[in-house]
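ok trying this again, last paste got cut off
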Amino acid sequence: MFPTTVAGSLPKPSWLAEPNKLWAPWRLSGADLESGKLDATLLAIKMQEDSGVDIVTDGEQARQHFVHGFLEYVEGIDFAHKVEMGIRNNRYKAMVPTVTGELRLKGRVHQKEARHARAHTKNKLKITLPGAMTISDTISDAHYGDKIKMAMAFAKLLNEEARALEADGVDVIQFDEPAFNVFMHEVKDWGIEALHRSIEGLKCTTAVHICYGYGIKANIDWKESLGGEWRQYEEIFPALANSKIQQVSVECRNARVPMKLLSLLKDKDVLIGVIDVASDEVETPEQVAAVIAEAMKYVPKERIVCCTNCGMAPMQRDIAAGKLAALGAGAKLARQKYA
């Protein structure tokens, strides 16, 4: 009852990358960097296990960014000449690489960290991948000339890596699609189709993560502009309810999302965000249990998974550790109250 997991990323050790930053520069290089990534993966697993997290992730310790960590392993992309581009409907700007040719995987993307994690935990293991729509919103196109065509090409590559991750022993593969909360009409037009291409043939558990973004200023400012109720989920949940994806991960803690919208997800497992990643305040177990209790009004308790609102990559490690401990303790308290 109420298994726990995290959305994906955790803060990196200060010896591996600059702390408290998104896109944090590496502090190691060469062979030291490669071994350091694996060492940090073990630390991330240990932090989760100690906190009572049931379905652990690699913490995304081996990638600088959740999207570009995948793109680095794709042929047909020019990283040498980046261009400035508006991200998430111009919510903020970033320097991004450009697609200049047919997209192909250079080889395995997350094999090293996935196998390393699998060998060192008896818990269920989740690995996250960027969704095709979000990738297409985080890269410039000088080849395909069509956003949908490019996204479907990325979906094919994501499926190749996802199938290989399943063979590595990964139990849950999650596709991160923050763009679903921005381009709601496109989700129904082609976003779900791209998601289906990404999960084709998988037998492991599949999930999609949709939220209001990392706890960075651009996202926090955007949330403040959305008014008293955040209803983006209302437009896309019916399409997700009818999709082949098994789990949907959403933001709930300190959100202005009407919780009744969760009922639109019908028979999906729902990863309830019970930990706020946009605040340094560490939740109490009682606060976590209260979010679970509210979600139970709209989602059967056997379909609730307790999660973080989003990734924690830019957060201070001690605060992230405290929040993970609250996640585990809050779920335990909810089991005692509602099981």
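PB: full thing came through this time. The chain has one domain: 30-338.
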